[in-house]
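#data-curation
PF: Archiving a pair of folding outputs for the training set. Convention for this channel: one message per protein, sequence first, structure tokens after, nothing in between. First:
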Amino acid sequence: MRGGSNGNGTPQTGYLPYEGDRMLVVILSKAMLLAKDTEITDPTILSQPAPVITGL
């Protein structure tokens, strides 16, 4: 999967091998969101309760 910008701020598009696989699209989008969870600024997402992790 390629990303980035073409220099003028427009995102690049390209072939997505998972295009059409809706479940995989959902899984990958959530994984990408959580990979940068410290950068989330959306108040709706931030208002959701965080999971409690025990046993670490």
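PF: Second:
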Amino acid sequence: MIINGETKKKSFDGTKEIRLAPKTLSGIRGLLRKDISNTLIEFSAYFRELCSKSLRMSDLERLENSIALTLCKLERIFPPTFFDIMVHLSIHLATEAKIAGPVQYIWMYPFERYLRTLKSYVRNNARPEGSIAEGIIAQECNSKIEQLAISDWNRATMCVLKNCEEVSPYVREHIEEVQSKYDSDVELRHEEQFLGWFQAKIAEMFDNQDKTVSQELLGLARGPNKRVNKYTGYLINGFRFHTKEHKKFLKTQNSGVFVQGDDGLTNKKYYGLILDIIEL
């Protein structure tokens, strides 16, 4: 390495420099005695080299010879109760890697940890398979958020707006406007264009300080919030409703509902069960 005196810059002259390897950093240095910390570092380095992606036979033979001495050092530090079968198993791991190859293809620790997770799902020892199946389903439901398509979101919003008396005049106004522009597919165009038209119209009226625009109407025009509160029961006009999930633990049945349908020419009657009670 050559250093220029004027520019203070270094340049490589082709000579080879030999330096010592950097020391392994550890949080236990300075906290424990040197003999204890060095022994623990040796034991950790054994597993670090053994779990590397590529293995050499020379390194495995060195590890096979050094682990016996490392375990003897550990026996001088820890009491006999510390040395169970898992600690003594480490003396065979290097020999096993020489025969079977890299440990990531032969060790069962990841599968054993997953089996421990499955065992934690068991609540009924008489039916362990059913408990594990329900636990996996619950975990998948919690880890994945159901995404509604834009069409489903708009369809649900339209269903709410059509059942609000405040929005009825604007629905009729938009249908008349669509009929004046198009001769066919009036209902389809109304379903597709009403949300944007209604939001723009109410926003314009609000900016012009139109007194007919109430806070409820402004909230309906802005659309529903994607984060809502859910309830298991609802009391309105002296009637009590519960969700289907909640009624499983009750003798009374308050989850059935009746809705008068509006599908154009005929008004059909629809019967169903309440799955969710959502605050809009």
